[in-house]
Amino acid sequence: MAALGALLAVAAVPVAAAQTAEGFLTVSSTPPAKVIIDDKDSGRSTPVENLRLPVGDHKLTLVNGNVKRTLGFTITAGQTTRLKIAL
């Protein structure tokens, strides 16, 4: 029975790690723009390098004056997603 308990504890580790997995976003735009991710202001403007984000699908909105562009992107664990956008 003790071996079964140990097996369950080991099996739980990858699940917890997957829930906290992160990757990175690097984004540049012409002209520079305010960066909004998942409808939340990041407090940054492009260019942004190696912004840490949780793994999964996200929404990027760039705003420069009256010009606004929104697109989806995916973050993969341990990888950098690079986006170059012309507004």
What keywords describe this structure?
87 residues, 1 helix, three-stranded mixed β-sheet, disordered N terminus, PEGA, signal, Immunoglobulin-like, alpha+beta, PEGA domain-containing protein
How is this structure best described in words?
- The chain has one helix at residues 2-19; strands spanning 22-30, 34-37, 40-45, 48-54, 56-64, 67-75, 80-86.
- With 87 residues, the protein is α+β, with helices and mostly antiparallel strands.
- The strands form two sheets. Strands 3-2-5-6 form a four-stranded antiparallel sheet, with no helix packed on it.
- It is globular.
Output the number of helix runs.
Answer: 1
Shape: globular
Q: Tell me the major beta sheet.
A: 4 strands, antiparallel
CATH superfamily: Immunoglobulins
Name the helix and strand elements from N-terminus to C-terminus, one letter apiece. HEEEEEEE
Structural class: alpha+beta
Termini Cα gap: 62 Å
Content of β-strand: over 45%
Tally of individual domains: 1
Helix content: 10-25%
Q: Low-confidence stretches at least 5 residues in length (pLDDT < 50)?
A: 1-18
pLDDT averaged residue by residue: 85
The CATH first-level class comes to Mainly Beta
Reading side by side through the largest sheet, how are the strands ordered?
3-2-5-6
Second-tier CATH architecture? Sandwich
CATH topology: Immunoglobulin-like
Computed Rg: 18 Å
Tally the beta strands: 7
Signal peptide: 1-17
Keywords: Signal
Domain PEGA: 24-87
Protein name: PEGA domain-containing protein
